[in-house]
Specification:
Helix 1 runs parallel beside helix 4 and helix 5 packs antiparallel against helix 6. By secondary structure, the chain is of the alpha+beta class. The chain is elongated and about 150 Å long. The strands form three sheets. Strands 7, 8, 9, 10, 13 and 14 form a six-stranded mixed β-sheet that branches. Strands 1, 2, 3, 4 and 5 form a five-stranded antiparallel β-sheet that branches. It has a five-stranded antiparallel β-sheet with strand order 6-16-15-11-12, with helices on one face. The N and C termini lie far apart (143 Å). It is 43% helix and 26% strand. Strand 4 and strand 5 form a beta hairpin. The protein has two domains: 158 residues, Beta-Lactamase; 224 residues, Phosphatase 2c, domain 1 (4-Layer Sandwich), CATH 3.60.40.
Length: 417
């Protein structure tokens, strides 16, 4: 101001001032960044809390539509998107969509230059979430990495919630099925004999081991009004509840016809017609029945497509019984079932069985076989009926080892003393 020259002291003073100004400005910038960071962290904390709350809320919803609507609403709000859509696809076909706001066109979101998108897969369904036009105080801005992370997290939450809902639904259905199977199993246990009748001069025993909770095999020994006994064994094609229903039908109808003392050949024709009319084409029943006269050992026999039953004669030779016709329920052509009459002499044995025994496989897919069963029958000639059945099951188990049982195991063994 006095026109004098600047001195070295003035230069030093200016340098000190500029440094102080720089320090002050840097402090200002750091403080500003700190405020922005605190704001950002608080915002992220709010987003994180909302993400957790949303996860809890959608996990409580029982309706998938409500779940998806809430998830879309929350992710749009947290990312400050102005609009969003959630589309559900299966095999590239749109099954449904949710929009926010509800009146927007899907094309408005898909054609936006400022958008983010993610998708999750579950059981062949694709859930694709698209958000567009992030809003701020300055107008529209680009979505950042946090927005993308939030969107992915929400998508995973939706996937987890949908999966949990489906698993919960399946668990309830499975529980219902288990209860129904338990009821079916208890009904079938009542159909199968708890105790076989005692036949004077004979030793009798049987067993049924289903491969599932309910099976398709059936055996029984029914005392008739005239003092004879009906020895029965049957096998329904297939397993589980459908097979057990056919077993129930067979049991009820057979007992009715036996009480009416209808000839065996006529009973077979009637039951065949009944099973044919009451079962689908892929269901049929192989059936063997023998009416025993305990006084003289006479056996009146019909075999409807079942495994040949075996008689071990007194000379230690095996006779196969194959008399009869086709399995029940395969055809309804009115064809007769040819019967056969044999005699079981003192000391001789009769073995009825289902194919679960000879076809029992080990880990190498080798069957127990008819030949092994016949050899077992010959080699266990001196056993009583109870020991024979137990030893037979044990021998089958020895063959199959740890291989899961693939078919029902059923046998009925009669010895004439």
């Amino acid at each position: 101001m006095n026109k004098s020259a600047f001195t070295e002291f003035d230069k030093i003073t200016l340098q000190i001032f500029i440094q102080l100004l720089d320090n002050a400005y840097q402090s200002y910038l750091y403080l500003k960044k700190e405020k922005q960071l605190i704001f950002s962290l608080n915002h992220r904390l709010v987003q994180l809390n909302s993400l957790i709350d949303t996860g809890i809320e959608i996990s409580k919803l029982e309706n998938n539509n409500q779940l998806l609507e809430l998830a879309l609403e929350r992710v749009v709000a947290l990312t400050n998107a102005s609009k969003g859509i959630l589309r559900i696809f299966k095999e590239k076909k749109v099954l449904g969509s949710f929009r926010l706001p509800n009146n927007i066109e899907i094309s408005d979101v898909l054609n936006s230059f400022n958008k983010i998108e993610t998708s999750v897969e579950y059981r062949g369904y694709s859930y694709i979430v698209t958000l567009a036009d992030k809003e701020s105080r300055k107008g529209f801005v680009e979505f950042d990495e946090t927005d993308e992370a939030l969107l992915s997290a929400f998508a995973r939450q939706v996937s987890g919630a949908v999966e949990n809902r489906q698993l919960h639904k399946e668990a309830l259905e499975n529980e219902t099925i288990k209860k129904e199977l338990s009821v079916a199993s208890s009904i079938q246990r009542k159909i199968l004999p708890e105790k076989l009748p005692e036949i004077h001069g004979y030793d009798l025993n049987g067993i049924n081991i289903p491969s599932k909770e309910v099976g398709g095999d059936y055996y029984d020994c029914i005392k008739l009004n005239d003092g004879r006994f009906a020895l029965i064994i049957a096998d329904v094609a297939g397993k589980g509840v459908p097979a057990s229903l056919l077993v129930s039908t067979l049991n009820a109808s057979l007992r009715s016809y036996l009480d009416m003392q209808i000839p065996l050949a006529e009973i077979a024709v009637k039951i065949n017609k009944l099973i044919y009319n009451s079962s689908p084409p892929d269901k049929f029943i192989t059936f063997f029945i023998s009416i025993l006269n305990p006084v003289n050992g006479e056996l009146e026999i019909i075999n409807a497509g079942h495994n040949p039953s075996l008689i071990l004669r007194s000379d230690n030779k095996i006779q196969k019984i194959e008399a009869g016709g086709v399995a029940f329920g395969m055809f309804d052509l009115g064809l007769p079932f040819d019967g056969e009459k044999l005699f079981l002499n003192p000391g001789e044995k009769l073995l009825l069985f289902t194919d679960g025994i000879p076809e029992a496989m080990n880990k190498n897919d080798v069957e127990y076989s008819d030949e092994r069963l016949e050899s077992f029958l010959i080699n266990n000639n001196n056993c009583n009926a109870n020991d024979f059945i137990n030893n037979l099951v044990s021998d089958v188990r020895t063959h199959t080892e740890d291989t899961p049982q693939s078919d029902d195991i059923t046998a009925l063994f009669l010895i004439r003393k």
